[in-house]
Every structure is written in C-alpha cells, then in structure tokens.
Amino acid sequence: MDDRMLYRVGEVAELLSLSKSKVYELIRSGALRSIRIDGCRRIRGVDLRAFVDERCVT
C-alpha cells in the first residue's frame, strides 16, 4: 500500500487479494469503513491500513 488518501473498491480488492464482491461485503458488514462521493464508493487509506492492522496475528 502507498500513502494515497482514497482507493477504489477494485484497487482494495487487488491489494487484499480478494474479490470486489467480498470487499463490498466487508463494507456492508461494517468491517471495512468507506465513504461515498457522488455515488462513488471509496476507501480511505487510513481505514484500509486499520482494517489490515486489526487482523494481524502476533
């Protein structure tokens, strides 16, 4: 991941090695935060990083 502010759902799916439908499922469930801009769904970089960090096993 780079330090971009916003990612498209397809980009997040690729970064996480998931399908776009799985990313939408994560958004609907509240596990992955997102925002809407004029009907476009975007995931903030900080929210994507938090999603990954919360799931890291130590």
Fold and architecture overview:
The structure is a single chain. The protein is 48% helix and 19% strand. The protein is of the alpha+beta class and 58 residues long. It has one domain (6-54). A 3-stranded antiparallel beta sheet has the order 1-3-2. α1 (9-16) packs across α2. It is globular. The model has no long low-confidence stretch (mean pLDDT 95).
Précis, in short:
The protein has 58 residues and is an alpha+beta fold. It has helices at 9-16, 20-29, 45-54, and strands spanning 6-8, 35-37, 40-44.
Key traits:
Helix-turn-helix domain-containing protein, 58 residues, HTH_17, 3-stranded antiparallel sheet, SinI_DNA-bd, DNA-bd_dom_put_sf, alpha+beta
Largest sheet, order of strands side by side?
Answer: 1-3-2
Helix content: 40-55%
Q: Radius of gyration, Cα only, in angstroms?
A: 11 Å
Query: How many domain modules?
Result: 1
